[in-house]
Amino acid sequence: MLRRRLNRLFGGDEKRVDSRTIYVGNRPCPATETFIPPKFCDNRIVSSKYTIWNFLPKNLFEQFRRIANFYFLIIFLVQVIVDTPTSPVTSGLPLFFVITVTAIKQGYEDWLRHKADSEVNKYPVRVLEDGQPARKDSEKIKVGDIVEVVEDETFPCDLILLQSSRDDDTCFVTTASLDGESNHKTHYTVPDMEKDLQSLSATIECEQPQPDLYKFVGRMHIYKPEHDPAVRSLGPENLLLKGATLKNTKKIYGVAVYTGMETKMALNYQGKSQKRSAVEKSINAFLLVYLCILISKAVVCTTLKYVWQSQDGQDEPWYNQKTEKEKGTILYVKMFTDFLSFMVLFNFIIPVSMYVTVEMQKFLGSFFITWDRDFFDPEIEEGALVNTSDLNEELGQVEYVFTDKTGTLTQNNMEFIECCIDGFQYTAFSSELDSFCVTDGPVSTFQEKAGREKEELFLRALCLCHTVQVKEAGPDELGGDQVDGPASEPLRPAEQRGFIASSPDEVALVKGAMRYGFTFLGLESKTMKIKNWQNDVEEYELLHVLNFDPVRRRMSVIVRSKSGDTLLFCKGADSSIFPRVRPEEVERIRMHVQRSATEGYRTLCVAYKRLSVDEYAAADAGLREARLALQDREEKLMAVYNQVETAMSLIGATAVEDRLQEEAAQTMEALQGAGMKVWVLTGDKMETAKSTCYACRLFRRSTELLELTVRTLESGGRRREEMLHDLLFDFHRKAVQDAPPARAGVNRSWSSANPEYGFIVDGAALALVMNPSPDTNCSRYRSLFLQICQNCTAVLCCRMAPLQKAQIVKMVKNSKGSPITLSIGDGANDVSMILEAHVGIGVKGKEGRQAVRNSDYAIPKLKHLRKLLLAHGHLYYIRIAHLVQYFFYKNLCFILPQFLYQFFCGCSQQPLYDAAYLTMYNICFTSMPILAYSLLEQQIAIEVLLDNATLYRDIAKNAMLRWGPFLYWTVLAVFQGLIFFFGVKYLFSNPALQDNGQVFGNWSYGTIVFTVLVFTVTLKLALDTRHWTWINHFVIWGSLAFYVVFSFFWGGIIWPFLKQQRLYFVFFNMLSSVSAWLVIILLIVLSLLPDILLGVLRKPRGPHTQQKKPAQSSGGHHQTSDRPLLMRTFSDESNTVM
């Protein structure tokens, strides 16, 4: 790092910033030049966090950055340094346990990362060295090496494609591991590349590594003896990315341009930002309160100690004379030491073991999601996946759901439905092969076909304007494009014919053309072949492909027919095509496009243009010049694209259906019933997305839609900024100012008396809101926009770029109240909003697994979100909230008698409990029952939670961890602590408690208090348990039995390693007293009396009282009797509901 900064400071790194020069094969070019090999990073991938040398110091440093761990470390050091009333073991052992468990967990996770890195780095690859193939480990690949990759292998680094086994100099790859797209992409070799790579002398000049997967700018200089260097442009179509997989191609050769941590895959990898749950924030707030209580106790006791000693004869009584060292100690130093001693004595009020218990609860609890059989999808044979167990309880606190449309609400399974040619409607289910069936009338009043010539032109456009490749017929074929043989042979049925494409829309359109009799035969040596109605094969030379991009929202091809005509075919979104064709043609198509979009279909418009010789020559020169540019290549290509895609003729439009996911409507309705706001964020057009929202019941027929789109902004004939200002204030008045007060909350109003509003915004309008002109008030617009959105029942954001999706989520997440957000999507374009939200859900859909890998949780289908939130989320939150409150409660019960005891021992720092009890209270005696409770408890049955979505609202806004419940638990702990101490004190008012007349000592006093304490807090948890399993019985009664057995052994044996044994036979003597037995039982009952009365007098409420139907109960029990209990606990109904 220092060397890099010095290089940049003194100019040594200046060239590196702009571009890099790569010598192909690491050979000098030309051969007579002096060759100094450039230095680039090796091909090692490092995703691990630790090494064997830095694990211990680095892990300890990270753990002690947590306030609680650092606090207990300080307490431990104080016990070691200062003469304190308790042994350092009492705080050192729990701290050691916490640190060790966490270190083992993190070390294991990093070991898995090391193992994965080693598998990648040691993977054998084939490299050409001096023209001969050689095998080496992947980590030893250098920039400039020529690498061989065979079919179904992943690329070990970023390669420029030099040679392919296919005759058309292409190869197919899948990039699902990079961008989530599982469709095949076509890549091309460098044009006019020599077949003999051994004699190749070339250099590559390209940009420095950057993370954009879809951008690459470079050029290749090919040197030949006695010839000027030939220059070839390089773009993304020539770059094979590390992590992508070679498909449908026997083998390829490529030269390494980026290696190791400079590959685009490595640059795109970013560790997930640490997401903190609302429960963790509540824990920190409660810790501060208890820390203040701890300091207050220490200050009070320190003050009272010196007040006591200020009395005559109390500072130095005859039985406790001061030493010379004590007499020479400065008063203030002594006071500070005493303060620290009291801090140590009371430090157990801060529950260090709670962090371990919470971690274990989250880690073990996440398995219930994985084991839930309701999440298993037989189609993909997979269930749910948990990538982050730290957010389980957040699933029960979601207030806003942001969902993608395509692939999430819909199936992303495209089917050609209909088309429109010159204003005439055609279905895809005509019984005639050589003609169309007109189902709707044209826009004009004439009922007639569009004409044979127009129909053939439209179908040719569908067969030519795409990047589809025909799948090879057999594994032994290299030129698999010729799958149909001679023209006279019958074609295979459309549904049996395989295609490879980067988009399912393109495959649907090509198959749609096949149904009408025009068949795409494949691309061979830049020649596209199609078969027409007469079974004649038409050939077209592919001259240029003007690739699709989200800005233009269209793609084009330039082809030349056998007759010499140069044609441009273009397809794209209506908003992108209509401005580039004649207005009179638009009116004939617009009605069809709008109607198809209203019905929920995805629409594309098709246009064409005949290019004159001069027009093509200008376009060809412009494209070649732009593709050779190293600087601003994208902008130059865009300018040429826009220049050539003008004055086109509109032929028609297509409609493709993407059906709704299974139970999508029921899921959305349940989420809204649970009080969540659902926002749909999609890149699709407004009409299609709006129809999907109606189908999913996000919008209802009675919903008044507020539309903030480019169309509404341009409708008034004024500047967009002015219309934006007026529309925002108008919508704000309707949805916020004039709305009933009840609509200000997050819950949907189901009353028909109150109007419901739906808000629609597109990407362009959102850009104006987020980034307005300098003379407008940015924050004011955002505030109005956010208030409008929050007061609408559902929000639709269409034509959204991935970055805009993340901006929307971030805006809501940072709004007033910090609502909990959830994003769900299935594609790479959803990753940004998945990472931005509090909880990210990936759907294992058809657009790859990028969203799944970057998510916190992954589910096979959208319908599983309902149970994940309403059942799992609800129960997880209740469990961990009870765990947190219970830990603070039982520790306050534990330490309050110790504090009260100081008033009766002259504030002498005398401990009430034995050191063994202090150490094991949180680790052994009371830890397992609450852990079992936090894993298995079901206060409400699963089916009741699913049937009554409104129950989710009962725990909204962190209801169980607010200050009200916290105060209740604190008061309860104080009450019981007072009962423990003063109840036992009343017992000790009787001087003779044993049959032989002996009195109990101070250790007997503490042991009785501790016994009542352990039994009370454990039985309190038993009273709170609604769902009993054998595990609950085992840990609750087992913990109490363990305490009794331990006390017998600890006090019944003389342990040689103890200098003093305070509890020797104390427990035996205590249990020999009938009075002690009576007091212990009475105090336990008296302490639990408030909980018992509360449980008896509390009136059951609504769905909480619903029991299972007998038929379901018996049937369900019989059906799942052989299932492991831990799985049955979550997937089946509960037997007890309160």
Notable traits:
single chain, 1138 residues, alpha+beta, nine-stranded mixed sheet, nine-stranded antiparallel sheet, 37 helices, 17% strand, elongated, disordered N terminus, disordered C terminus
Fold and architecture overview:
By secondary structure, the protein is an alpha+beta fold. The chain is 43% helix and 17% strand. It has a nine-stranded mixed beta sheet with strand order 14-33-32-31-15-27-30-29-28, with helices on both faces. Strands 17-16-26-25-24-23-22-21-20 form a nine-stranded antiparallel beta sheet, with helices on both faces. A hairpin with a 2-residue loop joins β16 and β17. α4 (67-81) packs across α5 (89-121), α27 (864-901) packs antiparallel against α32 (1002-1024) and α32 (1002-1024) packs parallel to α35. Mean pLDDT is 78; it is low at 1-17, 430-448, 474-496, 742-753 and 1102-1138.
**What structural class results from the helix and strand content?**
alpha+beta
What portion of residues belong to β-strands?
15-25%
Separation, N- and C-terminal Cα atoms:
61 Å
Beta strands, count: 33
Short description:
With 1138 residues, the protein is α+β, with helices and mostly antiparallel strands.
